[in-house]
Amino acid sequence: MGRRGARTGLLILVLILVTGWLLWQWSVRASFPAPSLPSPSPTPTLRSSATPVPSPTPTASPVAPVALQDPPPPSPTPTPTPGPPPLSSSDWVRGPEEAKVTLIEYADFQCLACATLAGWLTRLSDEVPGGVRLVYRHYPLPKLHDRAVVAAEVAEAAGAQGRFWAMHDLLYWRQDEWTKVPEENLLDLWVGYARELGLDTDRFRRDLESRRYRRRVLDAYQAAASIPMAGVPTLFINGVRYRGPLNRQSLSAMLQVAAQRPLYPAPPPMTLDLTHTYTATLVTRHGEIVIRLHPEWAPQAVNSFVFLARQGWYDGLPFHTVLPGRLAVTGDPSGTGLGGPGYYLPDEIIAALRFNRPGRVALANEGWPNTGGSQFFITAQPAPELDGRYTIFGQVVSGLEVLDALTPSRPGPEGVRDADLLERVIIEER
Which has fewest Cβ within 10 Å: 59, 201, 220, 425? Predict the structure, then answer.
C-alpha cells in the first residue's frame, strides 16, 4: 500500500473511532438525562391510595408459635432536633397572627426548589382551617448560588419600604430572568423591579450600591447555619422540622395535621415497663377491636403508640383506607394518608415475625425504611406480600369482625369523606 493509501486508511480509522465515541456519548446522555426539579415523591405504600399486591388467601390452619429473635433494647430518651429561634421583630411574616399553624421557611432566592415551594405556599395557606402564618428567613448559599446574597439584599431593600413580600414573590417569579442577565445589567434590572412595585427607586438604588443590608443578610445566614440543616428549603411547622416529601399534597396534609393536633420533634422517651402487659381497645361505631400490644417485638413502636393514644392523638380519626377483606389503615388526622406526628420511628422488623395470620397490627410507612409514625394498619387476612416491610407491634385478640363492617374508603387529595372513625383508643397496662 502506498503512502497516500496509508494516510487514507488512517483517516478512515480515525473517523470510525470518533463516530463511535460520539454515539457512545449520546447513549450515555440518553440514559442519564440532565437533572431537573424534583418530582413529587412516589405514592407512599400503605399511605394515601397505595394497595398491597393481592395474593391468594391461604386455607385456614393452626398457626405455629413464632420463634422470635431477641428484641432490641429500648433506646434512651431521644434528643429532639434543634428547632428554629422564636419569632422576633426582625422576621418577615405574613398571614393571620392568630393562625394555628406557623410555618418557618429557610430559603435561598436562587434555589429552584424554593421557587416551586413559594408558589405552593401561597395557595396552601387558603387550604388550612384558620390559615397559616408564614415566616421567611434568609439562608443564601453563595457557594452554590452566586447571586443569592445580593437577591436577599434586594428583598431587604424592598422590605425597608414596606414591600418585602411583593419583592419576595417577584424574585421567585422572575428567577429565570435575574439569574441569567449579565452582571453589568443586574443593578438596572433590580431597579426596574423596584419601579414595578412602586418603590422609591433612588433610595432603592442607593441601598443596593452601598450594600446597606448585606450585614443583615449575613447575620441571618449565620443564624440559619447554627441549626443543623441539609440545605434549602428547610421548613419548620409549629416549631417542628418537616421531614416529609416536598410535594404539595404531602405538605398540605401536614399543615392540616398541625392545625388539629400537636406535633412532636422526636419520638417520646421510653416509658414502657417490659414486664407489664399492654392492651389497646379501639372504639368504633361498629364495636370494639381489642389489640394485644407486644413491646417485646417492637418496643419503640409500642411506646410511641401508647404515648399518642394517651395524648388523645387517635381520637376521632378516620379509617382513611379500608380495603374490604384485606386491611384497614388509620392514624392520620388529615385523612390523606400523608400525615404524621412530626417524627419518624426506626424500623423494628423481625424476620421470623410474619403476616401469616389475620389481625396483625403494624406501622404504616412512606414506602422507605424508618418512616413509620402514627399511622397503623390491621390485616383482615394473612398477607405474606407484606412480610419484611413493616414493623408488627400488635395482634388483634377480639373484634376482628369489626373490620368487615367498616365503610370501604380510599383517600383523595383532600382526604376522605363519610369514612368510619376511630372514636378513641383505651390503653390498659397490667
Answer: 59
